[in-house]
From TrEMBL:
Pfam families: FG-GAP_2. PANTHER family: GAMMA TUBULIN COMPLEX COMPONENT C-TERMINAL DOMAIN-CONTAINING PROTEIN, UNNAMED PRODUCT. This is Uncharacterized protein. Residues 128-149 have a biased composition (Polar residues). The keyword Kinase does not apply. InterPro entries: FG-GAP, Gal_Oxase/kelch_b-propeller, Integrin_alpha_N. Residues 103-149 are annotated as: Disordered. Keywords: Signal.
Amino acid sequence: MGLPSLPGVSSAHSSLRFLEFYTHENYNSVAPSAPPAEAFQPPSLPQAIAVPLAVQAEPQVGLPFYQRKCFISMTLLAIGAVLGAVLSNSLDESGDTLVPVPGLGIEPQTSSPSEDPVAGQSAMESLVPSSSVVPKTKPTSNPNINPVTLPPTTSNIPIYLPTWPPVLTMNTSLKLLAPEGSADDWFGCSTAIYQDTIVVGAEKDDDNGLNSGSAHVFVRSGGKWKHQTKLLAPDGSEDGRFGMGVAIHKDTIVVGAWGEDDNGSSSGSAHAFVRTGADWTHLAADWTYQAKLLAPDGAAMDYFGRSVAINEDTIVVGAERDDDNGEDSGSAHVFVRTEEEWKHQAKLLAPDGATDMFGANVAVNGVSIVVAAHRDDDNGFNSGSAHVFLRSGEEWTHEAKLLARDGAARDYFGGSVAIHENTIVVGANRDDDNGEDSGSAYVFLV
């Protein structure tokens, strides 16, 4: 005879079993003798509950599962809150701040500007190789603190902190104009300064013919800047582009004229001027290669003079479209002065140059030369690079190749370069960090 069916409960005995609930008296009573099998009648049962085996398999000891899960979550949350408070107090006491590193997922910290905005400019840190651990820094009010110097590598990247430079207005600045300037002169296409003397190029001035070019000298006297003289190439000609590159050190000025044709169309040249008292005289007879500097192996379309730099008795002239390492691979030429005579000392090439326009920009500090190759492709098409050369005696050796660690295609890293003592600055005028072609600059220590 089958067992009585319960509402909503399956009759499959393999999946369910019944759990009887007896009164206290039934539980303590003596069970009656079992009747013969053929006469078995099931006892009258109180309300029964069907319990799945899977539920019975879990011992009902302690809290149910969902209650235990909630208890564990609350415990972990409390522990996290305590640890967070401890760490926060520790950081507040030590004053540690994170150093932002582009490309490593650490963003710049937001802080209030320094009381002295100029002192804030000293906050740029040293470069860090990719394999190095980024150190923590502590804020300081000392503007003369020296950053840690690490050897230059091809993967160096400067560490930067937000700075607040002073805002200059016309009360603290001055606008210089060419006394007889005219349309399309491009006055200001290049500039250079040494102490109280400024040089400004105007490569499309027409005094010696259309786009022959010029350079203007301003001196400061009694707190005012005054136009002192206008420099022209003695043999200037149409499309000479004299003034595209200018440089000055002490009483010597160098002016590049990349469009001149002495060694072929747009082979280029560079001119030197020295100052005696208040007068500037062109060093015509005192320069090797007759009246001006020329590349010994110059050829058409080299653009020798596209960039120039000078320090003491060393001049560097870039020829960005020289073809020694391939079309438009570029080169840079070094000239040195002995007494009043200038001689060609070396020709610098990029070890891996190829259509890189090595020599588009140059800088020199006496023992080091920086040459930009803003169309190098190591980090993508025209991502750019810069090369460092060191002098030992009369020899120049390639020391390092500088790349932007976060460089990308068309950044033009090397769009400008500068060096002072052991600090190098490289511009990337089409970097996109602040928007398309917003630009950036990188600082390296060597």
